[in-house]
Amino acid sequence: MTRLRNAGRVSANWLILVAALAAAVGLWLGMRVLAPAPGPALSFVVLYPAPRELPAFQLDRSDGGKLTLDDWKGRWTVVFFGYTNCPDVCPTTLSDFKQAWKRLPAATRQRVRFDFVSVDPQRDTPAQLARYVGFFDPEFVAASGDDEQLTRITHALGLVYARGEPKDGTYDVDHSASAVLIDPQGRQAGVLRPPFDAEKIAADLTTLAGAR
Known about the structure:
Blueprint: H1 2-33, E1 46-52, E2 58-61, E3 66-68, E4 76-82, H2 89-103, H3 106-109, E5 112-118, H4 126-136, E6 141-144, H5 147-157, E7 161-163, E8 173-175, E9 179-182, E10 188-192, H6 198-210
Parallel strand pairs: 4-5, 5-6
Antiparallel strand pairs: 1-10, 2-3, 2-6, 4-9, 7-8, 9-10
Helix pairs in contact: 1-5, 2-6
């Protein structure tokens, strides 16, 4: 029975990975074929030729509330998917975002937000997420949810994640290293690719927040 359960977990992880990878490839091909997006001149953020509509979803925030598609409306939101036990990519990314946030003018901060979504809900409880993200900045939003909700939104965003097999009581999670940009209409507007440049990110977000 244990062998069957392990096989089921591996199959589920591969299904998640393959489905999301297909979405990512399709998105990449679309970006290669279409012309560059019109709009303000940016130095780091890559805007898509046309924003992409996203499906409804519901995740659990670390503060006890819910994170839904409606919460991504009304501002520019930078969203990164990772996990708190991540040894390098996640803390480095959130450190860069912390520096970008510190560089934003006060007026821009009213129209911009950074969200961290964990793809490891089994270990990343609301309390753990609150402590982890709060270390970087208490204004950052943290959330997670079950695989049904996580797969729905990551697949739509062209991102991937897959958990490894437990070993000695722990496991790693493979996940996309890019962050996504959500526009004030709750659509996927672009992408931020590593290595991240805090100064350029802050400048681009300031431009976007001030654009009419």
